[in-house]
Amino acid sequence: MSLSPGKLKGLRALANDRGVIAAIAIDQRSALRKLFAMASGRDANDIPSKWLVQFKEKVSQFLTPFASAILLDPEYGLPAADRRAKDTGLLLAYEQSGYDKSSRFGRRNAREAGDRSGQIAHDMPYRQRSVGE
Predict the structure, then answer these.
(1) Which of 81, 99, 104, 118 has the highest Cβ tally under 10 A?
(2) Residue 133 is assigned to a structural domain of this protein
(3) How far apart are CA 56 and CA 67, in angstroms?
(4) CA atoms within 13 A on the CB side of 48
């Protein structure tokens, strides 16, 4: 299998010196909102979006120096992209909601987010695992 020079460059930007992609995945939205709701005693609908943004910013700021890449969502994660360590690559989720396959950010939005980051935008496939997998 051969990769184009551009794809190879993109993959290298996500990998560490050993060629391993050691990424932090923090593209959760509704699941993170539910965790905040449980911890705060509020209803998930009452969790301010600002909390999700700030949490992702702090995770990015403090953990990306130890990771080769970070996976974020364009909905609440773009400010966190600006807080990542300078040598940490960026992956952006392409779907608007993790398990809603019919709801995707448009190509234009993903391209703009990818261009903004200088890295790549991707479509993170979700699937249910079968028993025994």
Answers:
(1) 81
(2) no
(3) 15
(4) 5
Distances (CA, A) of 39 to 16, 36, 50, 115, 129: 34, 5, 16, 36, 28
Number of domains in the chain: 1
Residue range(s) defining the domain that contains residue 98? 20-121
**pTM to 2 decimals?**
0.74
pLDDT band at 57 (very low <50, low <70, confident <90, very high): very high
pLDDT tier at 125 (50, 70, 90 boundaries)? very low
23 vs 6: CA distance, rounded Å: 20
Q: Are 59 and 106 in contact (CB under 8 A)?
A: no
Q: Which H or E element spans position 78?
A: helix 78-81
Q: Beta-carbon neighbour count of residue 14 at 10 Å?
A: 22
Integer angstrom CA distances of residue 38 from 34, 51, 98: 6, 14, 20
Residue 69 maps to a domain:
yes
